[in-house]
Amino acid sequence: MIYFIGAGPGDPELITVKGKRLIGEADIIIYAGSLVNPQVLSGAKPEAEIYNSATMNLEEVLNVMKRGVAEGKRVVRVHTGDPSIYGAHREQMVELDKLGIPYEIVPGVSSFLAAAASLKKEYTLPGVSQTVILTRMEGRTAVPEREQIEALAAHQATMVIFLSVGEIETLSERLQAGGYPADTPAAVVYKASWEDQKIVTGTLTDIAEKVKEAGIRKTALVTVGRFLGDTFELSKLYDAHFTTEFRKGV
Ligand code: SAH
């Protein structure tokens, strides 16, 4: 059995109880060293074999998994945040299926959730936006034509953009070209939940400049939308006059 584990966004306490337990029981740990906080591995057995996948290709990762399983060892594969978001773990699962090796996935706290927590904001405000778009700009990995930034920006929903802060200038221009007014608030969270976390806030007009001044070039999320503002309607859920399944309105 291979366990894919979401390590969380950085703070070593933001891993699930299950993920932490499995790391503690593992004989072999393969972790995404470019982003996973090494402290997340602090509970590993001293004799555990630890591999940093940053320097490995898919075949090398699979070879370590195969050998581990053949030797009856417990193998865990640790991804940053949650593996389902830009984690490249589907291709590993496909190969494990071919080999007949079973696996389980333990979800993690994605960085986009840690970013909302750091910003002390809610992505889905009544009367503002009820939709969160998670996306990226194309880099070396292409993005399908119908998901181009301009097309997504047309909704003026809450947007969280991964893997794109290095091109923040182009990104903010394209968001405006797509339909967000120039005064739409934007916030960039660098290393959400890490000790050296940084937050830069502004609007689509000045966020690029501010991010450059702060020297942020990677490991950051760009969040955009009026959810960052202070105008919104109160929820129905806690409205005194609103009857829910659990509570009668007055
Ligand atoms: N699976 C991860 C995302 C991996 S893609 C998750 O669920 O969060 C890597 C990108 O995620 C980075 O380029 C950056 O845009 C973002 N990212 C990962 N960790 C981050 C953090 N702690 N703070 C801000 N952005 C982060």
CATH topology of the largest domain: Methyltransferase, Cobalt-precorrin-4 Transmethylase, Domain 2
Q: CATH H level of the largest domain: which superfamily?
A: Tetrapyrrole methylase, C-terminal domain
User: According to CATH, what is the class of the largest domain?
Assistant: Alpha Beta
Oligomer: single chain
Shape summary: globular
- Specify the number of helices: 7
Largest sheet: 5 strands, parallel
Quick one: how many beta strands?
10
Question: What is the ordering of alpha helices and beta strands?
Answer: EHEEHEHEHEHEHEEHE
Helix fraction by DSSP (H/I, runs of at least 4): 25-40%
> From the 3D coordinates, which CATH architecture of the largest domain would you assign?
2-Layer Sandwich
- Beginning-to-end CA distance, first to last residue: 54 Å
Based on secondary structure, the structural category is alpha/beta
Overall residue-averaged pLDDT value? 96
Enzyme class: transferase
Pathway: Cofactor biosynthesis; adenosylcobalamin biosynthesis
Domain Tetrapyrrole methylase: 1-207
EC number: 2.1.1.133
